[in-house]
Amino acid sequence: MLAPPTLRITEIFLSLQGETSRTGLATVFVRLAGCPLRCRWCDTTYSFQGGETVSLDEVLARVAGFGVSVVCVTGGEPLAQKNCLPLLARLCDAGYSVSLETSGALDVSAVDPRVSRIVDVKPPESGEVARNRWENLAHLGAHDEIKFVLADRADYEWAREVLRERALERVCPVLFSPVQGELAPAQLAEWILADRLPVRMQVQLHKLLWGSAPGR
Ligand code: SF4
C-alpha cells in the first residue's frame, strides 16, 4: 500500500492576515518548511530547516480545528514541496478561501486556479533578483497579487520600472512593502504619492500588533 502524502510543516496557526488585500482577516496559516532562496532580509529563516512531517489528511484536520474559513499557505517557499499542489486543491475542495504566498522563483502555473497567488518579485537588495521567474507573470489573473518588498530607493526605482514596463497593475493588484527596519514606511509612501503609482502600499499588520515572533 502507498504511504499517504505528507508535507514538512513548520507551523500551523491562527492569526490575522498581515498583508495583501486580505489584511485584517482571521486566517489559518500553514507554513511549509524549506526554501531554496536566501533573501537578505528574510523574516522566516526559522522555516529553512526541520519541520514536522504531517500527512495531508492531518493538515486538513488541524486547519478545520480552528473553525476559520480563510487559509494562507506560506513558507519558506511552499512550492518547493511537491505535495503543496494537492494540499491547495484539497483546501479549495473543502470550501476554504485559499491564498498562497510564493517567492516568484518557482513555477506557479499548476496551482489550483481557485487559489489567490501572492507572487513576490525580488528586487536587487534582496540578493535574489536573478531568481525571478518572469514567465510566472503571464499566468497571473485578477484574483492574484504581485508583491515587491523594498529596502531602499534603488529597489524602489527598480520596482517602478518593472511596474511600468510590464504594466503590472493591469494584471492584478500590485503591493509595495518596505523592509522593516531598513526603509521607513512614510518614506516609501512619499515616493509612491510623488510618482502617482498605481500600487497598494502595505505594512505588515501582524508585526505592528505582535512583533516578529513565530506563530503570529
Ligand atoms: S523566498 Fe521568502 S522564505 Fe525564502 S528566503 Fe526569501 S523571504 Fe525568506
From TrEMBL:
Which residues of the sequence carry a binding annotation for substrate? L16, Q17, G18, R31, T74
Known catalytic reactions: 6-carboxy-5,6,7,8-tetrahydropterin + H(+) = 7-carboxy-7-carbaguanine + NH4(+)
- MF terms per GO, please? 4 iron, 4 sulfur cluster binding; carbon-nitrogen lyase activity; magnesium ion binding; S-adenosyl-L-methionine binding
Where would I find the Radical SAM core domain in this sequence? Answer: 22-212
Look at the named UniProt entry and state the broad enzyme category this protein falls under: lyase
Query: Which keywords does this chain's UniProt record carry?
Result: 4Fe-4S, Iron, Iron-sulfur, Lyase, Magnesium, Metal-binding, Queuosine biosynthesis, S-adenosyl-L-methionine
The record, for InterPro entries, names: 7-CO-7-deazaguanine_synth-like (IPR024924), Aldolase_TIM (IPR013785), rSAM (IPR007197), rSAM_QueE_gams (IPR027621), rSAM_sf (IPR058240)
What is the free-text note on the cofactor? Binds 1 S-adenosyl-L-methionine per subunit. Binds 1 [4Fe-4S] cluster. The cluster is coordinated with 3 cysteines and an exchangeable S-adenosyl-L-methionine.
The positions annotated for binding S-adenosyl-L-methionine are W41, C42, D43, G76
Q: What is its EC number?
A: 4.3.99.3
Describe, as the record does, how this protein assembles with itself and its partners: Homodimer.
Q: What is this protein called?
A: 7-carboxy-7-deazaguanine synthase
Organism (species) = Thiobacillus denitrificans (strain ATCC 25259 / T1)
